[in-house]
Amino acid sequence: MSSKRYDLRAFEKTPSALQFLSSAELGRSSSGLLQIKYRLLGPLEKLKIPMLESRPHFKERLWQTTCFEAFVSGANSSAYRELNFSPSKNWWAADFDSYRKGSKDKSASKLRPPEIVYEAVSKKEAVMAVRLSSEWTFEVRSGLEWGLCVILELLTGEKIHFALEHLKNEPDFHLRESFKTKT
What we know:
eleven-stranded antiparallel β-sheet, 11 strands
């Protein structure tokens, strides 16, 4: 499987945010299996990490706490799919016709569950690996454009938003112009 690593940038410039670094690696196997591997460096003991669920399932509002996200679209398309993955192994996905319009998560709830592995490698490093079948990557199978993002929630309630690029004066992962990686 060939893959490429991307450094993600924190939107916030607070002392807490400066303690963390994040990156994402995106790759696809010859059989079409997609893997997104997120790496997080920093004082993990300061993070609110959702507990592993005994029966992971499709769940809304994962972004309200520590969550790993991806946005995918076909080239030159305004339609996109939002994917959310939790360390709890829960997931969520929705299709949008255009910027935050026409959200449809009912069809996405029928997708085959992703394989999610979250591991604290050390006190300062965690890895989240997500493996997806090709059905997760929208209707287009090649020439996809991606936005890769991470939301961290600190025990204090403070949030840190990581993305490839921040194009507004507030964190907004839905901006189609921020989908910068290609597969």
